[in-house]
Amino acid sequence: MKKIDVNENCIGCGACIAIDPEHFDFEGSLSTPISNENLDSKALNDAIASCPVGAISIVDEDENNHPQE
After folding, report:
1. Of 1, 4, 12, 2, nearest in space to 52 by CA
2. CATH number for region 2-65
Protein backbone atom coordinates (compact mmCIF):
# COMPACT_ATOMS: atom_id res chain seq x y z
CA MET A 1 0.00 0.00 0.00
CA LYS A 2 1.34 3.42 -0.93
CA LYS A 3 1.36 6.38 1.40
CA ILE A 4 2.64 9.95 1.62
CA ASP A 5 5.86 10.43 3.57
CA VAL A 6 7.21 13.75 4.85
CA ASN A 7 10.77 13.19 6.02
CA GLU A 8 12.96 14.98 8.57
CA ASN A 9 14.10 17.54 5.97
CA CYS A 10 10.73 19.36 6.26
CA ILE A 11 11.26 23.03 7.18
CA GLY A 12 7.58 23.82 7.73
CA CYS A 13 7.29 26.36 4.93
CA GLY A 14 3.63 25.42 4.35
CA ALA A 15 3.76 25.31 0.55
CA CYS A 16 2.32 21.79 0.42
CA ILE A 17 -0.52 22.75 2.76
CA ALA A 18 -1.40 25.82 0.70
CA ILE A 19 -1.40 23.80 -2.53
CA ASP A 20 -3.06 20.62 -1.25
CA PRO A 21 -4.98 20.91 2.04
CA GLU A 22 -6.69 17.60 1.22
CA HIS A 23 -3.43 15.76 1.95
CA PHE A 24 -1.41 18.01 4.30
CA ASP A 25 -1.75 20.00 7.51
CA PHE A 26 0.58 21.30 10.18
CA GLU A 27 1.54 19.14 13.14
CA GLY A 28 3.30 21.57 15.40
CA SER A 29 5.42 23.60 13.01
CA LEU A 30 5.99 20.88 10.40
CA SER A 31 3.85 19.41 7.63
CA THR A 32 2.21 16.05 8.12
CA PRO A 33 0.13 13.91 5.76
CA ILE A 34 -3.54 13.73 6.76
CA SER A 35 -4.85 11.51 3.96
CA ASN A 36 -3.51 8.76 1.72
CA GLU A 37 -6.55 8.81 -0.56
CA ASN A 38 -6.40 10.05 -4.16
CA LEU A 39 -2.59 9.73 -4.48
CA ASP A 40 -2.78 10.47 -8.21
CA SER A 41 -4.24 13.96 -7.79
CA LYS A 42 -2.73 16.93 -9.58
CA ALA A 43 -2.72 18.94 -6.35
CA LEU A 44 -0.66 16.26 -4.58
CA ASN A 45 1.84 16.08 -7.43
CA ASP A 46 2.10 19.89 -7.42
CA ALA A 47 2.64 19.91 -3.64
CA ILE A 48 5.42 17.32 -3.90
CA ALA A 49 7.09 19.30 -6.67
CA SER A 50 6.80 22.57 -4.70
CA CYS A 51 8.66 21.34 -1.62
CA PRO A 52 11.87 23.43 -1.50
CA VAL A 53 13.80 20.71 0.33
CA GLY A 54 12.34 17.61 -1.36
CA ALA A 55 10.91 16.29 1.90
CA ILE A 56 7.74 14.77 0.40
CA SER A 57 7.47 11.46 -1.41
CA ILE A 58 5.05 8.63 -1.99
CA VAL A 59 6.44 5.40 -0.58
CA ASP A 60 5.37 1.79 -0.47
CA GLU A 61 4.29 1.28 3.15
CA ASP A 62 5.48 -2.35 3.14
CA GLU A 63 8.99 -1.33 1.99
CA ASN A 64 9.09 1.52 4.53
CA ASN A 65 8.18 -0.78 7.43
CA HIS A 66 10.13 -3.81 6.27
CA PRO A 67 13.31 -2.83 4.42
CA GLN A 68 14.64 -5.46 2.09
CA GLU A 69 18.12 -6.71 2.88
Report:
1. 12
2. 3.30.70.20
- Residues with Cβ < 8 Å from 40, sequence gap 6 or more? none
Among residues 53, 3, 9, 7, the alpha carbon closest in space to that of 23 is found at 3
pTM of this structure? 0.85
User: How far is Cα 1 from Cα 10, in angstroms, rounded to an integer?
Assistant: 23
The structural domains of the chain, with segments of one domain joined by +, span: 2-65
- Are 50 and 24 in contact by the 8 Å Cβ rule? The answer is no
pLDDT digits 0-9 by tens, 33-46: 999 999 999 999 99
